[in-house]
Amino acid sequence: MNASPAPQEIFLLKLGEVVLKGQNRQSFEDKLLANVRRRVKNCGSFQCSLRQSTIYVEPQGEDCDMEAAWDACRQVFGIAAVARAVPCEKTVDAIVEAARTYLADAFAVAKSFKVESKRADKMFPMNSIQLSQAVGGDLAELFPHVAVDVHTPDLTVFVEIREKYAYVHTPSVPGAGGLPIGMGGRAVSLLSGGIDSPVSSWMMARRGVELEMVHFVSPPYTSQQAQDKVLELARLLTAWTGRLLVHIVPFTEIQEEIRRNCPEEYFTLIMRRFMMRIAEAIARKANAGALVTGESLGQVASQTMLALGVTEDVTSLPVLRPLIGMDKVEIIRMSREIGVFDTSILPYEDCCTVFTPRHPATRPRLEDVRQAEAALDVESLVQKALADETWVRVKSTDPARI
C-alpha cells in the first residue's frame, strides 16, 4: 500500500442553540463567526466560514498552532460540538482514500469499525445508508484485520456530504454550548476571590452576556496576593469570554465606617449594599443592563431570602444570580470543569471576610437595616470609592499572576 500525504486537517464547529433563532438568526450567526475568528487569530492564519449551520475553520499555513486553535474553538460559546476533519472530493474513492490516510493510526489499534454518513447535499447520488455501505465495504478490504460492527464498534468513521466537499471526521466532542458573547447584552459581575463568583460569571457569559468585572479591595486587611488571585481568575475566564476589564475599587474606608457606626449583626448586609451601589454606578458608565453575583440561596447568612431582598434594595438594575438554586457540590464541580477551582481555593482572603460579624442577622428587616445605615454618609463614601477606582484589562495571553 503506497503512502499518501496526510490530508490537511480542518475543524467543523456545529452550531447549537443559534439554529433555533428565527428572524434574528443572521445576527447571532454573524456574532458567532466573528467570535470564532477573534479567538483563533492568535493561533495562526485561519479561514473561518459558515455554511449549513457549521463553521469551517481551515488553516492557511503550516505554522498554524492546531492544538491551540482546537482548544480555543471548544471554548467559544454558541458552539454545540467540535470535530476534527479532512475535506475531499465527493466520490466514494476519494472518501475512502481520505479515511485510509487520516484514520490510519485509529485503524491500527481498532478491532471493529463502522461508517456513519450524513448527506446534507441532497443532489449526491447515494443516500446515507448506501454511502456508508460503499465506504465501509472498501475500508473493510483495506483493513482486513478490523471487523465491521454496526452496533458497538471501537471506531466510527463519520462521513458528511456537504455543499462543496465531503468530510471525513472523528467523533465530535462537546463544545461550550450557550449563545455567542455579545448577544445577551452587557452586565457587571461582582468578582471575589472565592469559588462562586467565577462560576456565576462563566454561566452568564455562556448565555451571551458580555461582562465587565468589579472587585473590592481593603488594604491593609487584604493583600496584593488576594488582588492578584482575582486577576488570575479573570485571566482564566478569558479563555471562555475573551478579554475582560476588571474594575478595582478601594473599600477599606467604607468597611471601617461600617464597623465604627453600625450594629455588628448588619456589617455584612450593609457592606453588600455598598457593593451593589458601587457596582450599579460602574454598570451605568459601562452601559450595562444588569449586575451578576455568585449568591446561592441559603448558603450563608447574607444569602437568605430576606437578606437578598435587603441587599438588592439599593439598586434598580436587575440582579442576575445564576447559582441561586445550586448547592456547593454542584458549584465546585463546575469550578473544576471550567478550570478556576485551584486558583479559587488559594488562601488569600478577600474583603468579604473582613470584620465578619459573630452573629449575623439571617432574618433582617429592611427598615432596621436602613436605619442602621443612616448613621453613614452613604453618598460621600460611594463617590470617594468610585473616584479612587482603577482598572486592569486582562487577556488570555497574559502571564499567570499566581
Condensed summary:
The protein is of the alpha/beta class. The chain has 14 helices and 15 strands.
How would you sum up this structure, described in words?
It is a single chain. With 402 residues, the chain is an alpha/beta fold. It has 14 helices and 15 strands. Helix 5 links the parallel strand 5 and strand 6. Helix 3 crosses helix 5, helix 6 packs parallel to helix 7 and helix 8 runs antiparallel to helix 9. It is elongated. It starts with 9 loop residues before the first strand and ends in an 8-residue tail after the last strand. The mean pLDDT is 94. This is Probable tRNA sulfurtransferase.
Which outline best applies? Answer: elongated
On the 0 to 100 scale, the average pLDDT is 94
- CATH architecture name of the largest domain: 3-Layer(aba) Sandwich
Give me the strand/helix succession.
Answer: EHEEHEHHEHEEEEEHEHEHHEHEHHHHE
**Record field, number of beta strands:** 15
Number of domains: 2
The Rg value, from CA coordinates, equals 27 Å
Spell out the CATH superfamily of the largest domain.
HUPs
The name of the CATH topology of the largest domain is: Rossmann fold
Low-pLDDT windows of residues:
none
Distance between the termini: 53 Å
Query: Can you summarize the main beta sheet?
Result: 9 strands, mixed
Report the structural category. alpha/beta
**What is the beta-strand fraction?**
15-25%
Pfam families: ThiI, ThiI_fer, THUMP
Protein name: Probable tRNA sulfurtransferase
Enzyme class: transferase
GO molecular function, one term: ATP binding
